[in-house]
Automatic annotation (TrEMBL):
The name this protein goes by in its record: Uncharacterized protein
Naturally occurring in which organism (per UniProt): Mikania micrantha (bitter vine)
One GO molecular-function entry: transferase activity
PANTHER family tied to this protein: FAMILY REGULATORY PROTEIN, PUTATIVE (AFU_ORTHOLOGUE AFUA_3G14730)-RELATED, HXXXD-TYPE ACYL-TRANSFERASE FAMILY PROTEIN-RELATED
InterPro entries for this protein: CAT-like_dom_sf, Sec_Metabolite_Acyltrans
Keywords: Transferase
Length: 429
């Protein structure tokens, strides 16, 4: 079946409505946390909404887009780094260069209106993510270093027959997932208030950079790094992207099983589900029993530094930690053993935020409504996808449920779907 074509209707750039203070024109220097991702690709996340019925005479797509642009401008007053560009300054002593966010001399955030002849059902009816979703996002193949010449944030609003998809492509040097959804929540808040509160938001972002005690607040990079390739690859591996829904009951059952097997209460819901997927994905690939398998976890570093950063810290303070095991051990032992492996990995890195369940109980993702009600689904673009990559979202119904996107090579995906342990876990839904 031919994938429908997404057509661009219009595009423009949106700048902050005004400056909150003189600081908005000052450079923002990137931390070592953020500079780690200089050659990674942009992050792409978005929400699918149902369009108000044709009988609703109060709704107009044209008026909706105007309101989105206007409220986006008001929101960028608070989140002004997103409307900036990257800049590089050469230092002579020592010979090095500095990459920073430059709020000046930028056209702003790119805003695209597009249309596609598709319905909500075409997007969510199957657990497989249709290829057309990749076209719901801008800046495909852009790497973070490209933020010198490309927008640090591009918003694409794609109009479906009966729905609206709002997708964001954001430079990972500027914002991690926590910061992106913070921005989206604030944008929705201002949109719904119709700016009657003067554009005030409930959770203003914090831009003061974290600096290791005794360190230079400006990170200087050696010239050798400047010579490393930064061009994004146009080759995309053939992957099958599939969503699995875990109800709150299914998650609770997995957590209880993992803790019972280890005679503990330390294992979190996130760790239990991660352990299940680690085992199932590994089993589907059928690697040699004596080979090593790893489970990489992206962690929120806001609570890892001393003193801890605010939850409203706007940036990309993320880290990757790795749990390892031989395939034989992972398969021979149960869910609890794998979950404890993950728990110990998290514990040794003292990442308290990973063990919290607040993101499950308070799904900020689905709190972004833009006057359209709760989103039907969350989806991601094709950037940074790889065989075995797993993305977890809070479930739409809340209560600790999860929607899990699994990317697998087609040769392994059928074995994953037929995995008895995975099927058993999903039967609790």
């Amino acid at each position: 079946m031919t994938s429908p074509t997404v057509m661009c209707v219009s595009e423009c750039f949106v700048k902050p409505q005004h400056d909150l203070s003189q600081d908005t024109n000052q450079p923002i220097y990137l931390t070592p946390f953020e500079l780690t991702f200089i050659n990674a690709k942009y992050s792409q996340k978005g929400l699918l909404f149902a369009k108000p019925s044709p009988e609703n005479q109060d709704f107009s797509v044209t008026a909706f887009l105007d309101d989105l642009r206007r409220s986006l401008s008001a929101t960028l007053t608070h989140f002004y780094p997103l409307a900036a560009r990257l800049a590089t300054r050469i230092e002579q002593n020592p010979p090095s260069y500095v990459i920073y966010i430059d709020p000046q001399n930028s056209p702003g955030v790119k805003f695209i209106h597009a249309t596609v002849d598709a319905t909500i059902s075409d997007i969510v009816a199957s657990s497989d993510v249709p290829i057309v979703v990749r076209s719901f996002f801008d800046l495909n193949d852009a790497v973070n270093h490209d933020g010198h010449t490309l927008p640090l944030l591009s918003i694409q609003v794609t109009e479906l027959t009966d729905g609206i998809f709002i997708g964001g492509s954001v430079n990972h040097l500027v914002a991690d997932g926590t910061s992106f959804w913070h921005f989206m929540s604030a944008w929705s808040e201002i949109f719904r208030s119709n700016e009657q509160n003067g554009g005030v938001i409930s959770r203003p972002p914090v831009f003061k950079r974290w600096v290791l005690e005794g360190s230079d607040p400006i990170t200087k990079l050696p010239f050798t790094l400047l010579d490393q390739p930064t061009k994004g690859s146009e080759h995309h591996p053939q992957l099958r992207e599939r969503f699995f829904h875990f109800s709150s009951a299914a998650v609770s059952k997995l957590k209880a099983k993992a803790n019972d097997e280890c005679n503990t209460q330390k294992i979190s819901s996130l760790q239990a589900v991660s352990a299940l997927l680690w085992r199932c994905v590994t089993r589907a690939r059928q690697p040699p029993l004596n080979s090593e398998t790893v489970c990489n976890l992206v962690t929120n570093g806001r609570r890892r530094v001393n003193p801890p950063l605010s939850d409203e810290y706007f940036g990309s303070p993320i880290d990757i930690i790795t749990g390892t095991a031989t395939v034989e051990d992972l398969m021979a032992h149960g869910l609890g053993w794998a979950a404890m492996k993950i728990h110990e990995t998290v514990k040794h890195h003292d990442v308290a935020a990973v063990e919290k369940r607040s993101w499950l109980q308070n799904p900020l993702v689905y709190g972004c409504e833009f006057g359209l009600g709760k989103a039907v689904a969350a989806r991601s673009g094709f950037m940074n996808k790889a065989d075995g990559k797993i993305t977890m979202y809070p479930g739409r119904e809340g209560g600790g449920s999860m929607d899990v996107e699994v990317c697998m090579s087609p040769e392994y995906s059928m074995d994953l779907e037929c995995d008895k342990e995975l099927i058993s876990a999903l039967e609790s839904n």
